[in-house]
Amino acid sequence: xxxxxxxxxxxxxxxxxxxxxxxxxxxxxxxxxxxxxxxxxxxxxxxxxxxxxxxxxxxxxxxxxxxxxxxxxxxxxxxxxxxxxxxxxxxxxxxxxxxxxxxxxxxxxxxxxxxxxxxxxxxxxxxxxxxxxxxxxxxxxxxxxxxxxxxxxxxxxxxxxxxxxxxxxxxxxxxxxxxxxxxxxxxxxxxxxxxxxxxxxxxxxxxxxxxxxxxxxxxxxxxxxxxxxxxxxxxxxxxxxxxxxxxxxxxxxxxxxxxxxxxxxxxxxxxxxxxxxxxxxxxxxxxxxxxxxxxxxxxxxxxxxxxxxxxxxxxxxxxxxxxxxxxxxxxxxxxxxxxxxxxxxxxxxxxxxxxxxxxxxxxxxxxxxxxxxxxxxxxxxxxxxxxxxxxxxxxxxxxxxxxxxxxxxxxxxxxxxxxxxxxxxxxxxxxxxxxxxxxxxxxxxxxxxxxxxxxxxxxxxxxxxxxxxxxxxxxxxxxxxxxxxxxxxxxxxxxxxxxxxxxxxxxxxxxxxxxxxxxxxxxxxxxxxxxxxxxxxxxxxxxxxxxxxxxxxxxxxxxxxxxxxxxxxxxxxxxxxxxxxxxxxxxxxxxxxxxxxxxxxxxxxxxxxxxxxxxxxxxxxxxxxxxxxxxxxxxxxxxxxxxxxxxxxxxxxxxxxxxxxxxxxxx
Length: 667
Fold this sequence. Notes:
It comes from Trichuris muris. The chain has 20 helices and 15 strands. The protein is an alpha+beta fold.
């Protein structure tokens, strides 16, 4: 697989002596042989990268610049063809020469390894790891350079872009301008396409396609792989997909001007898929007021390097104890990556609330703890979700809801925790997690780490790694867990499950709910009228002044939960799809430069959700709504209708089979 460069720009690999690899005194000639092995492996990796590049050029009909011959005396098509053919011949000879040199270097490496056997197994393993890291860094550097060269060669071809004339209906609610600054009609029209709209690229990275497929073909039989490579080369050279330009020249110029504006901030709303335009000064001032609260603490300088070295030290000690493969991969990435960055804070405006408060989100992509947090979340995820109150998704919730017998004095109520992530008591939840890990009989099937190791790593992610920057200033979150970390939702679920256990073990049976379902901090209950306030008071007494619940009662015999609208009809509960008042009706525009499978997935997903969440009396209305909003986003009407029919056939097939079987049995 062709991967991004993870080693600092260099052509010579790691900058430390081969002698430092060994912990014992060894003869000078042994060190010289080890150095020769290091240099030979470095040359071999470079040569293999060059060979991959040249083979990719050959298979796609491209000629590298260094093989393009020039003849200044005569310039015409015949001379150009002769020079091109000569360059192709030189390319083939160069490939053949590289393969011959690779075989020679491989043989030399085998002899050098054989001569170094006297070092012993332990030191040979250390030397092997050192050289493997050198090869890895060399590979990343070289492939980044060659990938750019290959992409430039592809881009030299003349692509024909045709304007797309598919009409879309602008969504007026899709753009909310709170900046007080005017936007032109063209700027508004562009923003109405949505922030996930992708303009047609100027070039396509075909090198990535080739390298990924070649990597996948390594386990395929030789003849099949050769045939497939030939077909791939044919596709890329003769039957190339030429995407239509989905923006006019004027639109691209306006988009460039919009990106260059420094007086506004363009972001998405907290809910509803709405694009919000804010004045930059007001946005910055509002975020600074948020950061002045007790939950955040300003720190001096960027702690990223200190955090990286501390985590590496912790990982190294745990790797020595457990030999865990996942930790080794994380440690390798931390040690050699130059892409590690500080987490960044951004805020999403809650346009559905008075004064438009902000929801803070920390982007932790490529942060020091990002890969570790993702690994830990997978390990502790199985500790949760085993309770009968757990809700996996809306379909699961509706299935359980349909089993309830509704009585006249029952009332639908939803409870929600205010600012859960920044309110979670970290030390308390760490102890809960430790108790769960110690009693988890399946833990050894998921990782080699023991509960102590896992808790120390989780604690590091939530304390030392819980920092971010905003406007070149650095802060540490002193309370709760960060929004944006992959570890936070699982950690929050562990806390909420314990809170739920405490709530039901101490609640007065007179006002205990008859039906209780929870999705993280969103709770739906059926409870006797008059008891909903008492249950709310009980919930707020569990972690007084720390965890604060709010309540919403049914209105007009209706109450939303997740994306389900629950309605009371003659002492029974009916359901349909729920959309928030801020919903813009904006979906991925059909003219966006996405694979067609993405658009099919959106249509099928919406239709399937309607079929699974809507009662029969509401289904027709929901399907008509889906057809209307998707057509407004440029989707062909036939595509939407065919998805309806296909999914209806799929879902009705078991019922038809049952009917046929029953009728056949009666004959």
